[in-house]
Write a structure and sequence with these properties.
single chain
């Protein structure tokens, strides 16, 4: 009986923390290596979820105290049903973006610079650092972004 009571208190405490402690989201994209990684860290190192691209597709990994407890290859649906409004409803805060990019044609580099600046206006980005390379010989894009997200509030907004 006491074990059940302690388990219920632990679950209630975790649900309370879910609504009060913001998680950290990290996104890394490197076009030269054709890889990306999206990590959500909540009470790190308590819980970490990571989606990354690998040779066999996309992989979801869950870590509890830095020990992997789940690794699954994800089935990717070709149809994307979300839009910018869905992302805005999550209310991300403390957004910081660092972008390095270059295209063989300087015109496309300038257009990409404009697009990144426009997108940053939708999310009230706190820090935006762009390093366009107008004299690039090869096309490349490197994006590192971080944000804070209240998972409890976001889950309620999506339901």
């Amino acid at each position: 009986m006491i074990i059940l009571f302690l388990l219920l208190i632990t679950i209630a405490l975790l649900i309370l923390l879910l609504f009060t402690v913001a998680s950290r989201i990290e996104f890394h994209f490197d076009s030269a290596a054709a890889r990306f990684k999206l990590a959500i860290l909540w009470l790190y190192p308590f819980l970490k979820a990571e989606v990354s691209s690998e040779d066999s597709g996309y992989t979801l990994q869950l870590f509890l105290f830095n020990k992997r407890i789940l690794k699954r290859i994800m089935n990717v649906n070709k149809k994307i049903s979300g839009n910018m409004y869905d992302i805005q409803r999550l209310h991300p805060t403390n957004i910081a973006i660092k972008a390095q990019y270059g295209f063989q044609d300087p015109y496309f580099t300038g257009m990409f610079c404009t697009v990144i600046s426009m997108i940053s206006q939708f999310f009230s980005v706190d820090s935006l650092s762009q390093q366009p390379d107008f004299l690039a010989f090869d096309t490349y894009i490197n994006i590192d972004a971080t944000a804070r997200l209240n998972l409890g509030r976001s889950l309620l907004a999506l339901v």
